Amino acid sequence: MARSILEGGEQAEKSSYMLFFQSPEAEGFFLDNDAAGLRGLYESTGLDDTDEYVRVLGHRPAMTAALNWYRALDRAVIARMGEVTSPTMFVWSTEDPALGREAAEETAQHVDGPYRFEVLDGVGHFIPEEVPDRLNRMLLEHLAA
Predict the structure, then answer these.
(1) Distance in angstroms (rounded) separating the CA atoms of residues 132 and 104
(2) What is the pTM of this model?
(3) Range of the domain at 26
(4) Within 26-126, where are the H helices?
(5) DSSP, res 92
(6) Count of H-run helices and E-run strands, the chain
(7) 3 lies in a domain?
(8) Per mean pLDDT, which range of 23-27, 78-82, 131-135 is the poorest?
(9) Which sign does the torsion angle of CA 101, 103, 106, 108 carry?
(10) Which domain-ending residue is among 56, 75, 94?
(11) The predicted structure's pLDDT at residue 11
């Protein structure tokens, strides 16, 4: 992922939102005007229950905690992690606005154990919310193997 972002192209563009999420202005953008920015973000994804996401994340401590995940990203730590040796399944969706196919497929280069790459056509970024039954079947099959 880091290499795909640094090399530019599709993944760099898709990941450009991360810089804003790391900025001190992000909380205000998402929470001002009765959480209009947060509501707009979730409504743009087509998720059904945006009110629940706003209820949970629509307060400064919760929003700061969520954004701190992006603020804590450290490529140096990731580089020292080494290869993944446990059986791994990567589930990617064709309509994900944040993760391109090339970056997703390149993850296989960092897995030294059994690897499975699954593609969900027509599904967006929030796979567990959009197709929970399908994802659960895939997970149960993967874990059983």
Answers:
(1) 20
(2) 0.82
(3) 10-75
(4) 26-45, 50-57, 60-71, 75-79, 101-106
(5) E
(6) 10, 2
(7) no
(8) 78-82
(9) negative
(10) 75
(11) 87
Q: How far is CA 75 from the centre of its chain?
A: 16
Tell me whether residue 69 is in a domain.
Answer: yes
d(CA 117, CA 69): 25
Write down the residue that tokens 């307060």 correspond to: 59
pLDDT at 53: 92
Each residue's pLDDT tens digit, 101-126: 998 999 899 899 999 999 999 999 99
Average pLDDT over residues 50-68: 95
Residue 45 lies in a domain: yes
Cβ 63 vs Cβ 55: under 8 Å = no
25, part of any domain: yes
From 75, 92, 112, give the residue that closes a domain: 75
Within 10 A of 43 (CB to CB), how many other CB atoms are there?
12
2-32 tens-digit pLDDT: 777 777 788 888 988 999 999 999 999 999 9
Residues 24 and 71 placed together within one structural domain of the fold: yes
